């Protein structure tokens, strides 16, 4: 009985090693650039897309390992579903705190689908916000309050009617929007 227990344990550990080697390690430099952003290497460091110029001066993009260490995740490639839920683009080069100036970005990041369903992205932007002295949970709470206030206005909760367009104003082309 004891020998079958030992054999079972040896077989179990051999299977674990086999599965680990089969799945492989996530190494940023081996990732294609379309999977690089929002990925975490097996070492626990975030992957980033960097720009470099080739001999002809044309920009090339490569995936590199950053020095940013993630405590809870390693060997993780973010899903397209989470990238889309959070309103992000996987091909982005670098990540900036300027994103927090965009109410559209904050609206996507703070949705329950993103905020509660995409912990890697939330961790990344929580740390980025903290480095700027911003609390992401507070920012999302404010976003939710503003959203509720806007819904009250849109449902005519005491809002007055706006101006009516005249035929001349309707003929004027709207200003181009920036994307």
Automatic annotation (TrEMBL):
This is PAR1 protein. InterPro entries: PAR1. Keywords: Signal. Transmembrane segments: none annotated. Residues 1-24 form the signal peptide. It holds the Pfam family PAR1.
